[in-house]
Amino acid sequence: MRIACLQFSPRLGNIARNLERAETVISRAEPQDIDLLILPEMAFTGYNFNSVNEINCHLEPTAAGPSTVWARSTARRLGCYVALGYPEYCAHSPSLPLGPVSRYNSAVLVSPKGDVLANYRKHFLFATDELWAEEGPEGFFSGDLPDGLGRLAMGICMDLNPRRFETPFEKYEFAHHILDSKADIAVMPMAWLTSQPAESVVDQAQIPDADTLAYWIQRLQPVLDQGGQGQSGETIFAACNRTGTERNACYAGTSAVVGVSKGNVKVYGRLGRGTEDLLVCDVPGPGKNSAAEWR
C-alpha cells in the first residue's frame, strides 16, 4: 500500500493561495500509484483563528466546501483516497436545542471516485479549537476502506493526547480506539506545535523534530504492547502535520508514516520540521503496492 502525506505551510485565511501551494507540491513530486493521500488539519484555511467572528467567513458546509471540492477532484485525478481537515459548519433546524448552527474542526475522507465516505468531527479539542468549535459528539472514527485496503481509524491532532490534558496520560484513548476497532491504518491530519524555538523551522528545516515524533509513538504505547489488531499484526500510523508559523504558533512538521506491531516500531518515512514536500511511503498490506520501503 502506498501512503502519501502532503506537508506544507498554509497561510491563515488565504484559501486560494493555500490551494495553489498544495497543487505545486504535488506537481513537483509527480506521485504515482498512491492509495491514500493525507493533508494537514484545516489544510486550506490555516489553523490559528482567535474567535468565532474571525473564522466564520472561512467555515465550510458539511463535506461541501472548497476543501471537499479539492479532495474530490484530486482523488479522481490521482485515483486514490484523500483525507484532509477543514473547519465545518452544520446547519440545524432552529427548533433543535443545538441552535441553528454547529461548528466543528473536521476531516473529510473521499474515495478514488470522488465520493465522500466519511466526515469526522474532532473529538478532543485543543485550546485554540475551543475558541470557536464544538466537540465532535460521535467519538473517534473507524470504518472499512473499499477495495480491500483494510480498516481505517481516524482522529485529528489533539485526539492523540489525553482529553483536555486532564485525563490520565496512561488512558491512551486514541490508541485504545485503534485496538478496539482493529484498524490496519490510523490516519491523523495535524496542526501540531513544536516545543523547539521558531528559528529551528528555518535553520534545521530538513531535520525532523525528534521530540515530536517520539511523543507520537509514545502515545501509541498500547498498540506497541499488544500488537496491531488489523489483518497483518502491524498497524500503520500516518500523521500529516503542517509546518511554518501563524501568529505566535510554530508548527513541528515531521509528517511521518510509522508501522507499530508488538514490541516493534518501524519508521517508513518522515519529513523535516520545515520542509514543504510530499512524503510517499510503501508499507506492507493490501493495495497497489506492498513493498516495505519508502521514497
From TrEMBL:
<dbReference type="InterPro" id="IPR003010">
    <property type="entry name" value="C-N_Hydrolase"/>
</dbReference>
<dbReference type="GO" id="GO:0030163">
    <property type="term" value="P:protein catabolic process"/>
</dbReference>
<dbReference type="Pfam" id="PF00795">
    <property type="entry name" value="CN_hydrolase"/>
</dbReference>
<dbReference type="InterPro" id="IPR036526">
    <property type="entry name" value="C-N_Hydrolase_sf"/>
</dbReference>
<protein>
    <submittedName>
        <fullName>(Perigord truffle) hypothetical protein</fullName>
    </submittedName>
</protein>
<dbReference type="GO" id="GO:0070773">
    <property type="term" value="F:protein-N-terminal glutamine amidohydrolase activity"/>
</dbReference>
<feature type="domain" description="CN hydrolase">
    <location>
        <begin position="1"/>
        <end position="285"/>
    </location>
</feature>
<dbReference type="GO" id="GO:0008418">
    <property type="term" value="F:protein-N-terminal asparagine amidohydrolase activity"/>
</dbReference>
<dbReference type="InterPro" id="IPR039703">
    <property type="entry name" value="Nta1"/>
</dbReference>
